[in-house]
Amino acid sequence: MLKIYMNITIETLWKQGKSIAEISKTIGHDWKTVNNIVKILEATGKYPIKKERPKILDQYQKNIIEMIEKNLPPLRIFEELTKEVKVSYSATKKYIAEITNKRETCIRFHTQPAEEAQVDFGYVGLTPNQIGKNKKTWVFNMRLSYSRLDYYELVYDQKVETFLQCHVNAFNFFKGIPQYIKIDNLKSAIIDANFYEPTYQILYKQFADYHKFYPLPCRVRKPQEKGKVEAGIKYIKNNFFLGRKFITQIELQEQLQNWLIKANNRIHGTTKKIPQQIFDNEEKNKLLPLPEKDFIIPQISQRKVQIDFHIYVNNNHYSVPFEYVGKYVDIEITKNTIRILYQNQQIAIHPKSNGTGEFITNQSHYPKYKNYLSTDYQEKYQVKMNEIGIYAGQLFSLLLSKHPKDWNRATQGILSLKKDYSTEIINLACKRALSYEITKYKIIRNICQNGLYQLPVLRDSNATEGGEAK
């Protein structure tokens, strides 16, 4: 088509007496191309028209459109076509693009009763909350795809727990659950927007499994796949919120409930039927039953693990394995528990504290070199001190009794003396320290440095060479 327009332009300019160079500059084409067209015009008086040849795939167009409607990708369509016709993959892709883009084909998705619902959030501006303060507000819409029956709910955030609670409220409104729920790759439901391998947030997947429905994410940049719920969001914006002002939240909720009843009993613009009647007569009894017990929806949040291996949740501190220090973890808070996850894997769980400022600590979360109360850890250093000598071993016992929470610093200091002194000197220094019940590393180091271990002990030691008390 563009080539025909170019030929017409060249003919018009040529008849106006323009030169080939002028025409070439005006239309932005090579002068040789212009010259060839002018020669044909001079010889025949008409610009050349290239007849459009029929494409090899024209006779398969109906089949191709049917495969597009089934969401088959170009490669799968190509594989099916090659069973009947010899055609290249590039030619197939080009032909599909002509159907879906140039011809602007509109594909409708039809579903059976109770088969599918579509959900989405839509921002509706500022509305009064419970205390009368205007706050950013979204409307949640779940629309049954077959009957077009709507459920609407106003929310003040788009958190995962809010998203799930809206589902529960919608299920209760319909008194049943559809087989599939189509979602628009919301952050509250979908992590990875890959249509073929969607990775659901673990909580949303658990929620779906509990209610026995299948989440069905829309493909990225495919708005027609959730067109019904998008129409529902647009409908409530234009027909309820537009031009209305609300003083209180109670007033807003009452008007919304009354409007919803009328909206579900109107003649729908597409089906030309009343959604409530279709639902009652054809869809209601085919929905999946509601669960006997409600799904426990936890409060979701995120925290950074502090240097002391704890996170701060609702005025209390909860321990996390030490290797997660500095990382951000997800928190699930229920009535009785605090569940901590990293990359969708549980790494800790604690009973929820009802107090304030409490530390709820699992000792196994600490590294052994920090867990001074560990018996295995203490025995390891007992052996090292005994290797120096009997007095060093007894000094270690004194350290444990006098400094149960910080014995490790002095012990490690005494062991470090082996770099400069023999074990015999260190052991004698420990003997002198024992006689005065001294446990400070610096004093024991001074005894070694100044040769004080050679002086007679002025006070009787509680230890003998045999290790028995006098």
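That was protein one. Protein two is written in the same sequence-then-structure order:
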Amino acid sequence: MLTDELAYVIGVDTHRDEHTLAIVEARTQRVCAGLVVEANRSGYRRALRHAARRAPGSRTWAIEGTGSYGAGLARFLGERGEEVREIERPKRSGGRRGKSDAIDAERAARELLAGGAGSQPRSNAEAQALRALLVTRESAVRQCTASLNELRALVISAPGELRERLHRLTERKLLEACSRLRPSADEERTAYALALRTLARRISGLREEAAVLEGEIERRVRALAPQLLSQPGVGPISAACLVSAWSYRGRLRSEAAFARLAGAAPIPASSGQTVRHRLDRGGDRRLNRALHTILLSRRRLDPATRAYVARRLAEGRSEREAVRCLKRYLARSLFRLLENPPVTT
């Protein structure tokens, strides 16, 4: 147990401008000190000095949000040999308990001591860089989709001459035609032409951004985990999601922990004489979406996957249950590939 291995756990509630610390003695579960520091290197040094003074001996830091507000502190501590664990932020819905930064810091420490959490933070610089590229690409794709929907809606409400010219065009020809629109004597038509031309050029620019980012993502994935791209249904974007969530060998203690992170772990949902499981609705939803995308591709193109689904349906399982089993299998097999890549000669 952690209470036998550690003398102290330092819980940290992280925010943009400052972090709140709570030092909990492992044996007595008593809060023996607290501190609020600025979220910068000066504050990190102050936190480390405070921990060395008030929590001597074996200690672990339980930090919320090591992928966002707590990333700087986790990186700073890791570089100085401190043991750091990542704690999920609590869900607030339906609770009546008090809320303060000090309470949250104490809760983070107690959660780690209870054994309910504590994966290592995503401190791998290459995986974090890949995550930054993924987030930026997703933003470009999302804005591109929104702009395209706006453009199509404007075409529907445009003056008759413009609408008749544009509304039956394919997407590529529509963008080309809108990007060439020019002002005219009609004020309404001029306004619509400007709006459509702006949207068409914005869409083209966003697609160029996404293409550049996808090329860089693929290059990095081929350098970090080329074995993933040889798997059926795994493209560069899905592989990048897997690598950024996994981060580095040994961060997650088992393939079951990876499945839990991916929201692919089975959860009992039995009642009466019905015995079944359902998928976890938590975890890293970007990673879960990557598994789902791979599964959709395999169901179209992979005969073994199609045969498995058919066999499950013949056994009386629902399609959702078959998909749940497949996601769990995918999480297991892809995690093993990441942890133990094939040796190339």
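Residues 125-224 form one domain. Keep this in mind for the problem set.
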